[in-house]
Write a structure and sequence with these properties.
44% helix; alpha/beta; 12 helices; Rossmann fold
Length: 306
């Protein structure tokens, strides 16, 4: 597959429907080095997920039965929003751990919503059953080509905006975002995949030599809590020898605090996880290395405005 041409086409396709999110350079966060950031949490519905959702819906024929998606929250909100904008019905399945703020966000979109006991994998099973019963089209959260190339538009856009970093830190759950970044960059810049210690499907797959199931928990589980890394992400990570690091919940919480205190950016744990690698020492840049951090999610629980 020619990932570059696919991502270029996806970016053009979705431009009328997404926000070109801002970037900042040389930000002093009280860390040993300044960092560049892209504020993708300012995207529609508060995460990068809108890109993959719009690309999928705009590049396929949606059946009369509509759409179905399983999500920890952000993907479901993005699919619901894209469906509403484009005039399609949608049914979203989320686990209880999605939290009140993300559940309310989906409700406001007008999509049908089912809250399922358990974790993301349980919601995905319920969504598959709905798909089989109704003929609705499943929109996978991270392991589908249209999703991945839509997410890859983040990195294309960032380079258009003048990204100069040697290294980009990206949080990983199921792997759609980092897969899109790998697919676009093709090794031109170093990517560091950052996972919570309690949700580390990519690192587990790397060690096992194949995607495996992992237990998920912790403060970022409702965004990064995939039990198994996506096959697309794993394939690209293996090809490119992707570097992975894990961070504790305490560093993720500290990163959230840092973003609020220094930038007045309110982000969820998953959105702050990439930055946590610099706080915890999970990733230590070399002298003179230019580092960028992708801030990717803005739906914290509890929602301060509910």
């Amino acid at each position: 597959m020619n990932w570059t041409s696919e991502i270029k086409a996806a970016h053009q396709r979705i431009l009328p429907y997404i926000r070109r999110t801002p970037t900042l350079t040389g930000i002093d966060l009280g860390l040993p080095l300044p960092v560049d950031v892209k504020l993708e949490h300012l995207q529609h519905t508060g995460s990068f997920k809108a890109r993959g959702a719009f690309n999928t819906l705009l590049s396929c024929d949606v059946p009369e039965a509509g759409l179905v998606a399983a999500s920890g929250g952000n993907h479901g909100a993005a699919v619901a929003y894209a469906a509403q904008r484009l005039g399609h019905r949608a049914h979203i399945f989320v686990p209880e751990l999605a939290g009140a703020s993300k559940i309310e966000l989906i409700k406001r979109s007008g999509a049908a919503l089912s809250v399922v006991p358990g974790a993301y994998a349980d919601a995905f099973g319920a969504a598959q059953a709905h798909e089989a019963e109704t003929g609705a089209m499943q929109i996978h959260a991270y392991d589908a080509v249209p999703t991945v190339v839509g997410q890859g538009s983040v990195m294309r856009e960032w380079e258009e905006q003048g990204l100069e970093a040697d290294t980009v830190l990206i949080a990983v759950g199921g792997g759609g975002l980092v897969a899109g970044a790998m697919a676009w960059l093709q090794g031109r810049r170093k990517i560091v995949a950052v996972e919570p210690e309690t949700c580390c499907a990519l690192q587990a797959a790397t060690r096992a030599g194949t995607p495996v199931d992992v237990d998920v928990s912790g403060i970022a589980a409702n965004a990064l809590g995939a039990r198994r890394i996506g096959q697309i992400c794993f394939g690209l990570a293996t090809e490119q020898t992707l570097e992975t690091v894990t961070v504790p919940d305490s560093a993720i919480a500290a990163a959230q605090t840092l973003l609020w205190q220094n930038m007045r950016q309110l982000v969820e744990p998953g959105g702050a996880t990439a930055l946590a690698a610099l706080i915890s020492g999970g990733y230590t840049p070399a002298k003179g290395e230019k580092v960028a951090v992708l801030i990717c999610g803005a739906n914290p629980a509890p929602d301060p405005f509910l």
